[in-house]
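Bench notes, afternoon.
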Amino acid sequence: MTNSINELESDAKCVFLIGTNTTENHPVIGYKIRQNVVKNGAKLVVADPRKTELAEMADVYLPFKPGTDVALLNGMMNVIISEGLADREFIESRTEGYEAMAKVVANYPPEAAAEICGVDAADIIKAAHLYAESEASSLCYAMGITQHTTGTDNVKSCCNLALLTGNLGKPGTGVNPLRGQNNVQGACDMGALPVVFTAYQAVTNDEAREKFEKAWGVKLSGVNGLTLTKTINKAHEGEVKGLIVVGENPMVSDPDLHHVEEAFDKLDFLLVQDIFLTETARKADVVLPGVSFAEKDGTFSNTERRVQRVRKAISNIGDARQDWEILCELSTRLGYPMSYNSAEEIFEEIRTLTPSYAGMTYARLEGKGLPWPCPTEDHPGTPILHKEKFNRGLGLFHAIEYLEPAEVPDEEYPIILTTGRSLYHYHTGTMTRKAKGLDAYMSENVVQINTELAKVKNIVSGEVVRVTTRRGSIELKAEVIDGIRENVIFTYFHFAEAAANVLTNADVLDPVAGIPEYKVSAARLEKI
């Protein structure tokens, strides 16, 4: 997030939610947005194929067709430019690339954008006015924006909209990705990406690489690694022979699960480090038991970039070990001796190599923690990014054309399938599906179907139906609702026995980020 969570409750005069079911997937943030709307009269714009809880109270609800995000955002920007609502002073003083962006956006008048997206042009116009004319507008998105073959384009379009209206660098504004798990931000900060060291220092950058080589006493590759999906593909092709999986369950979470299973079966060796015997761990040659959050010391970095201490509440159970201890012993046995005495000692190394964490110490993180960047020990942390300037100097507009999803409906597969999360379960259900209380609320998967589509198919709520794509089929209960587009069906990905990711597409990825298109698959719905 460029801004902080609490601003969504107090400072934002307008909140634009796109590709995020906030109250279910980020309940605390969803609550704060609701409070701002109810108590302060903040304006709310929601764009989502399903009528989510916050969509019910929105000033404008845009039930747009999955995969048409760029067209929708370009349509809003067309209105903002053509009606003189752009922040010309901000554009001229703090950005570049405006003319190229504006030239493309000119091709998306609200009527044309509305036809692509399947919404009313009047609602695109109203949404554009609310976002551009409010004193401070915050844009929030989640995986409904990123999990597309055009995910990078979608994010750039969100940034274009914020730059166009000057909604960056001040309270209540910003482009705010809501992270899907508690330490996704921290994992990325620590270099758990195949192209960077900590703090997004590129592995291809000679100076950065030399710094880490000096600290660790080894030569490091300057070649970018493979993303998760590409790694699975390389295993399937026989190029990747061994895999270590730590705290992840790709046998439920990855797209095209038949393909994933075939890839794992071709490996010479699979090691899984986790707290339960997950679907992936069942396929492993060796399983190493790690520890849960309650058994850990260390730090988590949350969605607003805030680095916070976590403290061990209970001792390790059974033979389980700290994750870092397991990794250190593995490294040592593989020929690179690695030894630390504590999580704090590791953090001290992190901050010497990570400019955005350099000013943090365990003592300074007491209480509420600190948002990065925090470059020195007398720095207060940075709750709002880009106040005076952007990291690159000027903010860069991108000229983005709308591209269709990799799969669009046809005669054989006439419906769009999209997937997501439930309030009651977390990721692949490794923990939550073992909780009796949560299981009582949602014990099995369902597919949400529009009332009109259900009538055509003669389907009623509670009966088992079949959903099929080019990858496979699953059978699950129907949930007939009004609050979803007529030609769209939705299901959850938490349930291994009716796994949504049997259906999703791994063949075509976002060309920049390598993200699969979980949010759009051409599907067929059948009454059994």
